[in-house]
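Pilot study result, target chain (825 residues):
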Amino acid sequence: MKNITTLFCLFLISTLCSSITAQIKGKVVDKNNQPLPFVSVYLQNSLSGTTTNDNGLYILETKKTGKQTVVFQFLGFKTLKKEIQIDSFPFELNVKLSEEEVQLEEVTVNSNENPANGIIRKVIANKEKNTDKSGQYTSDFYSRGLFKIKNAPKKILGQEIGDLGGGLDSTRSGIIYLSETVSKIWFQKRPKNFKEVIVASKVSGQDNGISFNRAQDVNFNLYKNLVPVADANIFSPISNYTFSYYKFKLEGTFYDKNGKLISKIKLIPRRENDRVFGGYIYVVEDDWAIYGADLTINGEQINNPAIDVLHIKQNYNYEPNSGVWALILQTIDFKVGLFGFNINGRFSASYSNYNFKPTFSEDTFGKEILSFEDNATKKDSVYWNDLRSVPLTLEEKRDYVIKDSIKVVRKSKKYLDSIDNKSNKFTLLSPILGYSYNNSYEKWSVSYDGLLTNTQFNTVQGFNIDTRVTFSKRVNDEGKRWNVSAGLNYGFSDKRLRPTVSFYKKWNNISRPRLSISGGVDVVQFDQRNPISNFNNTLYSLIDKTNHAKYFEKTFAAVNFSQEVTPGIDVYTSLEYADRKPLENTTDYSFFSRRKTFETNNPIDPTSTLPAFTEHSIFKAQLAASFSFGSKYISYPKSRFTVTNSKYPTLTVGYRKTFGSDNSEFHSDMFFSRLQQNVSLGNIGTFDYNARAGAFLEQKNIPFMDFYHPLANEIDLAAANRLSSFNIMPYYAFSTNDSYAEIHAQHNFEGFILNKIPLLNKLNFHTVVGAKSYFSGGRKPYTEYSIGLDNIGWGKWRFLRLDFVQSNFNGQKENRLLFGISLFD
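Predicted structure:
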């Protein structure tokens, strides 16, 4: 009872604070007295204002008394101007909006062209002029994120998911995420610059208060040819090539509050599976600028199976001094359905206090594009009530109060211990499936890898079990943490027990310095990038009696260190001492193919019973640096993240040296480099390339594992990383101790070709072409060419890919079909 009273008092105080700080407040409804959410409310001749919340309530700050004109604007409804006389505050103003009446007879129809097409052509022709008007500005930004779930499942894949932060009612429905952000933004068109400083940020029920509501993430600029939405580039209805993707229909016209003629144009996708919007766009005649947009797109179009539909709505307002039609309100509604979850969400954003004639200095912009003011995540409720431009609904207020109270309880030792006691129970299956023991209050845990999940097969060990025990400690919220682990591997065929130990430490989430120390006895592939996974090697060995993976044993001690020197520049160093021993096959077992014989474990000559190298000890040191050109970064209170620039490639250069062996012929020096980039080519898709090159300073008879091994693939499944691996190159056939170079290139047309072919366009497949080439020493080049279909599947579930590959080396050609999985790619 005491807790309920406390919650009620907090809720009452929060409500009173909202009322006291209000200046002009009220409610906006439609003709049926239903509340209208996200109506723009502002004073006439100003871009400063607010919006209504889900209940149609608004609060408009103003310090002036006397006569004022308040404007209410909402897409699809008539703009209302209300002149009022304010004698004291707070002043209550409730209004009712009527739907906009569009009339087609206002338009002069040209029989030679669809009138909507003519309007769109003029908008495209005036894009540069209109965006130049807002070529630089500053503004205030407010955003709110809200996720609500209905009938949430209690378990997923047998795992309990809890109460999702405490926001669920008895039907397991309610708010699972609520956040707000207030920030200031700076923008410059030429040269292209953007900066955001978050003044205040909060998340219901969370301590750190860091929300996802960044201004740049919701910058759906329709004046650009491509609009990034949920990791997909969507063709804007006013892109330079819009008539290849859209048809348009003029629904009608109306006049806005300034006497401007507005045309309402329906968007009709030419092909249902193209990356295009449905809905409407509103255009201002004579200015040929966007007045508003009401857009929809589904998960199939953006290749995201989790999303049912996205609904984006934009409202623009006219600023007479600059002649700019500026975005003042944007809402993003979405429905998500996956694994039994049914989530409705909304991100709403409002822009105010525009200044289109700011004075920028050389220090205004830099590499930091997002930062937080001091104590931005620590603002109290009084501060938020003064700052918040959109009032909270009763449900949102209740969520803040309840979850903030729950947060205090759930940080307590008593609560955390009770949760741990439940999750730390040891069961009969724990030795097989794994087990973890957590102490959440002290921030440490002990985990054990189960036997079943780490059982595998290879020809040098037979069936073998690899298990590990790990102790992890999180020191603070700034990213400082460490762990220590000990592992055991036992082979049932070679009857060998091999132990390993490791230590890992990270100091912070800013420059992310990471140190790892490890040692023990291990069985590893000659190419330690593991060209064939343990799972695939087990599968092919037991079923087809094909042992693609080749192994050797090393007794080793190693240390690795990496750190971000500055955003865009990372360094990596390592030093290892290893005693290396060759291994032989110890088993001929498989499920089938009993008459077939395994290859030997010699990667150089799989028919030879001789070892691939002689036993030796050696040191290996490596130093590398990665440069992401043109990159910038975002700074959170306790972390920093680099944002790469797709206009420039990422370059990695490094040097590797082996030394300290009894046989100096085993010593080597190698320089290596890598260049990679992803390039968007607009309506014709995306182009990716990955190039590697390197050279040994002296060609010597070094141990085979120190050769350069291009990533090869002989199985019928595509490699995990297509841009690093060859499709059908034989394993170890092109390893070299000389100079080498390789290039991997791929272009995904993303529907540009097939979506234009009748009937085939209904499949929504994507055409992908690729080319790969490898050069080493005096050899002739090895090449591969491929053509494939991506985005294969049904409905929103499109995670399959099929490629036809042809290789060519020294006049010998090979053809093969490869299957691949690219879920969420």
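One observation from the pilot: Confidence is low (pLDDT under 50) at residues 1-22. A full batch analysis is planned for the follow-on phase.
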